């Protein structure tokens, strides 16, 4: 309560709280020079790495006999998991018709003295591994070694020769490394390469000034192994730091993409954080006895929790090896028929680290006839129903035709199974007249696609939303507005093979449940009949002995007059469901199928 003979100190206390949060008390009315208080505040926070508290003004008590007000301040630092909050007291004296701050270090923290300051230290948590299906780490934190030249330990006349010799031993660009060495300061440590201990040649000890320094790094199997799935780790962006509310600093490493990003909080663990009251530099030199350090806040580091994937390391490696020779974008996805587990999801080097294999959006071409066939079965057809495979079909203003080389023996009135196995476009496009867009979308859903699901990793299950009659006819053959990822088409194959709606999953403990109408046993059997005919007598004959059922596909894309063709193949046997995709190819049978053959033979 305010003394009757003095004005309230609320404004003065609020001004101090704001000034402390802004780290500038130089303009506040003070009992002693404000410049001294500002210098003291700057010294106190010099070792805090820019971390400052939010300050809230609390209750004010007024002393009965002196012109003194004592305010409670709450200091709230964005530190660690739970933050660091405590209260302090600030004294004000009423003099010269205003309240003046009676500055003391205890305003910042009760345990500070004129000889001590705050110091922040941070110990990064050990990042947890990402494991394969056998529980063996694919990527984990471990020791790496920087190998470079310590210029301060070498005579200037030897810098250039030493740099060239070290570069030759490490098999790095000698000219570029020498320029880097010469461009740095006379005492600089210039890193030439970062490598595993076993990779460091023993003969580097012959190079004057060589220095090997151990560092902590995220170590994987090397190269681009599953890079679009796993993602990368690095320093957080400024935006990430701002959004973290104090849990991240520029010193941290975080997941920036892929699984490393999706499960970053779990993998990263909790860093070790300490705030100590330590001697000021001037106090340490002037005092006869050292000022003891006092820990004011501590959060112990903890190792993150790893995740285990369904990936089959050998299958993934083989798929990547096969795709390494592809000039353009190509992908292979392998799912377990038993439960939809992702065993491999690989893409060619042209895809970079963007997850085209699981998130790409491509016209699926005739592989989508597996979905269309389900819609046709639900409309009352059977695998033996007769359809008309005409040489061409006009819908509205657009004329559909069959692919070049379509067998003339499979034209005319033929069974649905033959139309499917030989991939007759006109028969399927004609069926659009009796199948609505909603029915086609529902059929896609029963095969696991056309509906977004969060399956625990970056994925795209395609778009199936045909519009007008032309678009609906085009959608029946996987053109028009229909798009799919290689993962999505592998999902279709897995659902048919399993006889139920199957969704892929990659991270153990993270599986989604389908929301679409279930696939019936009769429907699944009908689809398998047609898929198996494709292998036995249709466009998928090259997979005989490897796969039981399949569907080829080609899709045109690009500008009118400059159209290019994508090649697809989806297939299954008792164990695996697979999708093969080549963005620029010839046909499913000649371009995409050989990738499956190479993978499983």
**Structural class of the helix and strand makeup?**
alpha+beta
| The CATH fourth-level homologous superfamily of the largest domain | DD-peptidase/beta-lactamase superfamily
Overall body shape: elongated
Write down how many β-strands occur, each being a DSSP E stretch of 2 or more residues: 23
| Subunit organisation of the chains | single chain
Helical amount among residues, as a percent range? 25-40%
CATH topology (fold) name of the largest domain: Beta-lactamase
Number of distinct helices: 19
Largest sheet, described in full?
A: 5 strands, mixed
Number of domains: 4
Computed over alpha carbons, the radius of gyration is: 34 Å
Strand percent estimate: 25-35%
Low-confidence stretches: 284-288
Q: In the CATH hierarchy, what is the architecture of the largest domain at level 2? A: 3-Layer(aba) Sandwich
Average pLDDT rating: 92
Distance between the termini: 87 Å
CATH class of the largest domain, named Alpha Beta
Question: Can I get a quick summary?
Answer:
One of its GO terms (biological process) is response to antibiotic. The chain has 601 residues and is α+β, with helices and mostly antiparallel strands.
Please give a structural write-up.
With 601 residues, this protein is of the alpha+beta class. It folds into four domains: 10-120, Nuclear Transport Factor 2, Chain: A (Roll), CATH 3.10.450; 130-292, Alpha-Beta Complex (Penicillin-binding protein 2a (Domain 2)); 312-357, no CATH class; 361-484 and 496-557, Beta-lactamase (3-Layer(aba) Sandwich). The strands form seven sheets. Strands 6, 7, 8, 9 and 14 form a five-stranded mixed β-sheet that branches. A five-stranded antiparallel β-sheet has the order 16-15-23-22-21, with helices on both faces. Helix 13 (416-422) crosses helix 18 (521-537). The longest helix is centred in the last third of the chain and has 17 residues, at 521-537. Residues 123-279 form the Penicillin-binding protein dimerisation domain.
């Amino acid at each position: 309560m305010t003394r009757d003979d003095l004005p309230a100190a609320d404004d003065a206390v609020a001004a101090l709280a704001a000034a402390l949060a802004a780290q500038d008390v130089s303009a506040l009315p003070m009992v002693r020079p404000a410049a001294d208080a500002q210098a003291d505040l700057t010294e106190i926070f010099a070792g805090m790495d820019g971390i400052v508290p939010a300050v809230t003004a609390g209750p004010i008590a007024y002393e009965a006999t002196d012109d003194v007000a004592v305010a409670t301040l709450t200091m709230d630092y964005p530190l660690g998991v739970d933050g660091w909050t405590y209260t302090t007291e600030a004294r004000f004296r009423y003099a010269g018709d205003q309240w003046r701050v009676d500055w003391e270090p205890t305003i910042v923290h009760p345990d500070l003295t004129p000889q001590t300051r705050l110091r922040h230290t941070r110990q990064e948590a050990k990042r947890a591994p990402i494991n394969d299906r056998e529980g063996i780490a694919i990527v984990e934190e471990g020791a790496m070694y920087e190998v470079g030249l310590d210029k301060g330990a070498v005579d200037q006349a030897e810098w250039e020769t030493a740099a060239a010799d070290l570069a030759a031993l490490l098999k790095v660009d000698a000219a570029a490394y020498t320029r880097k060495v010469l461009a740095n300061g006379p005492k600089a440590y210039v890193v030439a390469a970062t490598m595993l201990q076993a990779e460091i040649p023993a003969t580097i000890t012959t190079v004057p000034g060589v220095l090997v320094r151990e560092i902590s790094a995220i170590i994987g199997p090397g190269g681009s192994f599953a890079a679009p799935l796993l993602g990368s780790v690095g320093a957080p962006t400024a935006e990430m730091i701002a959004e973290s509310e104090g849990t991240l600093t520029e010193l941290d490493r975080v997941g920036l993409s892929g699984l490393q990003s999706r499960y970053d909080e779990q993998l990263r663990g909790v860093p070790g954080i300490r705030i100590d009251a330590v001697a000021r530099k001037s106090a340490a030199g002037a005092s006869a006895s050292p000022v003891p350090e006092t820990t004011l806040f501590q959060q112990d580091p903890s190792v993150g929790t790893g995740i285990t994937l369904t990936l089959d390391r050998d299958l993934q490696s083989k798929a990547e090896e096969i795709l390494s020779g592809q000039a353009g974008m190509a992908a292979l996805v392998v799912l377990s028929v038993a439960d939809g587990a992702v065993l491999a999801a690989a893409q060619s080097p042209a895809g970079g680290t963007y997850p085209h294999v699981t998130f790409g959006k491509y016209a699926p071409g005739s592989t989508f006839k597996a979905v269309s066939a389900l819609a046709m079965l639900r409309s009352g057809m059977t695998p033996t129903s007769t359809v008309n495979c005409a040489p061409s079909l006009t819908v509205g203003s657009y004329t559909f035709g069959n692919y070049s080389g379509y067998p003339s023996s499979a034209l005319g009135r033929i069974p649905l199974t033959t139309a499917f196995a030989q991939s007759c476009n006109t028969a399927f496009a004609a069926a659009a007249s009796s199948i609505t867009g909603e029915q086609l979308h529902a059929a896609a859903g029963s095969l696991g696609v056309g509906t977004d699901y969060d399956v625990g990793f970056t994925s795209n299950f395609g778009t199936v939303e045909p519009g007008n009659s032309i678009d609906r006819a085009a959608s029946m053959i996987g053109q028009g507005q229909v798009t799919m990822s290689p993962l999505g088409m592998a999902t279709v194959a897995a659902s048919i093979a399993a006889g139920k709606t199957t969704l892929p999953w990659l991270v153990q403990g993270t599986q989604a449940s389908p929301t679409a109408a279930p696939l019936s046993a009769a429907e699944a059997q009908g689809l398998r009949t047609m898929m198996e005919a494709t292998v036995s007598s249709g466009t998928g004959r090259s997979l005989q002995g490897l796969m039981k059922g399949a569907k080829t596909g080609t899709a045109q894309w690009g500008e009118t007059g400059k159209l290019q063709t994508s090649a697809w193949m989806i297939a299954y046997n008792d164990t695996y469901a697979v999708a093969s995709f080549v963005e620029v190819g010839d046909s499913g049978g000649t371009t995409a199928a050989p990738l499956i053959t190479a993978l499983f033979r």
